[in-house]
Amino acid sequence: MRFLPLTTRLSLTASAAALMLALPAVLGAPALGQAVPDAQPEVQAQALPPAEAVPGTPETTTTPDAANSGEVPQAPDATTAVGDHVAAVGSIMPQSFSGIVAEVSPAVVNITTTSVVSRPAGRQRGGPAFPPGSPFSDLFRDFGIPGFPGPESPFGDPGFGAPQMQQRSNALGSGFVVSAEGLIVTNNHVIDGADEIEIEFQSGARLPATLIGTDPSTDIAVLKVQVDKPLPFVRFGDSDRAQVGDWVLALGNPLGQGFSASAGIISAKSRALTGTYDDFIQTDAAINRGNSGGPLFNLQGEVIGVNTAILSPNGGSIGIGFSMASNVVKGVVDQLENFGETRRGWLGVKIQDVSPEIAESLGMEVESGAMVTDVPAGPALEAGIQAGDVITSFAGNPVTDTRDLVRRVADAPVGEAVDVTVLRSGAPVTLQVTLGRRELADADGSGAPQGEQPSEGASSELLGMSLVPMTPELAARLQLPETAQGLVVQDIDATSDASAKGLRIGDVIVEAGQQPVAALADLRARIDEAREAGRQSVLVLVRREGEPRFVALSIAED
């Protein structure tokens, strides 16, 4: 489960968060924080590992009223999913979810992983072990409690700087069966680094699992258990058809307490957290650590999401959970099952969203599509796509923004020729691009080093910036090719529109009005042309540390 800290939340590690359940008397509060004066702490994404096994929990984690036969469950046949028998439920709240839960529960599993971790030697004489950097370890060390020494510890116990010892550690998560042959879906972070993976069914039966493949980009992993009879399994539903306000059920193994169900509604859709391919369903159904990898069901018994992350001030559910949409997961699972890895399409362009200012500067009626900022060597360059093009259609489907284009390209088969329509100089142009493979392209990522402030030279004031033409000496200082051209920002007025749009000293303006600029006269000419066309801004292409970005700068005259 990924953990999104809320305003008052500490950056707790998994062990520290788990100890909050075990030491209420010692801690006396759900979370310890440090005040930030005159500002609200920002919300940021952070990984929330699966729940750790807590000493004293029952050996079996099945629910008390479940049939604890210890036998592997068997499906009536290998083609019918357990959710197929769920009757359609109306849009109003049902009196009970018991029928759906009873139908799909046999396909939901607990996952226990075992891995080897390093911990300081000599910890046995002190208190419980905390990972380095945990606020609890700092608290206990500051008070000189044995087992939590610092450099000046009066107890002389070994601390985190002491020699490390290898220990085996268990972690808990959730998953669900998607085929009668024993294919299981969970989160990648549930099994990441595990030496052993064990699956527990609701009946109490346990089976070892092997890893088929993982996709860290969507945090999905596929496992397999060997069975000699068909297993109960569930089907994926169409997450695109789900609507905000629909009822959903989250099943899993929260905090290692066993099979559990919680109900809620879809609070929002198409949430993006930190990943390139993020398409999360937000729900207020209770999701906690240990629910990682568990299914989110609609009322037809179909999986429409994989529970992955929560937003929380203390590690527990506050009704803001995130499940990766099933329409993303289905494609990943199919590829992992068939190839053991993902094989995503690759177009080979750098893109940015079309802002209202950019749309106005290009004379576009609507601010949609994905603007191409750079075209490195790859499929797009070979097909003739150029920087400054706005991609408006991919494979016959309209492109709304950069996220939409990234998802469509990733879902397209590698090696397939697709039609890509771009807006160029105000007119549509259709090109045919043969897609490459994203994973191979990512293996060759690179970035230009940080540039230095340009040296002094003859400059002119324009649009609130002091600009100087590129010279071989400036190019060398900025670690650019000797033949680089453009206008270098030497100084910038903090009250200017350029400063408000994020330009800074050392940036290089290489295009204006989608035409190259090598001298100040070029930029002035583009500004005059835009004003004559009645536009309020001019589109400039800026390079910073080798990365391009289009910015629409205001040219309105006072």
From TrEMBL:
SMART domains, per database record:
PDZ (SM00228)
Question: Does the UniProt entry include the keyword Repeat?
Answer: yes
GO biological processes: proteolysis
- Listed binding positions for substrate are H189, D219, G290, N291, S292
**EC number(s) on record?**
3.4.21.107
Protein location: Periplasm
InterPro entries assigned to the protein according to its UniProt record, in alphabetical order: PDZ, PDZ_sf, Pept_S1C_Do, Peptidase_S1_PA, Peptidase_S1C
Keyword terms of this UniProt record: Hydrolase, Periplasm, Protease, Repeat, Serine protease, Signal, Stress response
What Gene3D superfamilies does the entry give? 2.30.42.10, 2.40.10.120
What is the first-listed, main subcellular location in coarse terms?
periplasm
Q: Which portions of the sequence form the region Disordered?
A: 49-77
**Active-site residues per Swiss-Prot or TrEMBL entry:** H189, D219, S292
* Limits of the PDZ domain: 348-401, 452-545
Domain of life the protein comes from: Bacteria
Catalyzed reactions: Acts on substrates that are at least partially unfolded. The cleavage site P1 residue is normally between a pair of hydrophobic residues, such as Val-|-Val
Provide a Gene Ontology MF annotation, just one. Answer: serine-type endopeptidase activity
Query: Top-level EC class, please?
Result: hydrolase
Which residue positions does the secretion signal occupy?
A: 1-31
Assigned protein family:
Belongs to the peptidase S1C family.
Official protein name in the record: Probable periplasmic serine endoprotease DegP-like
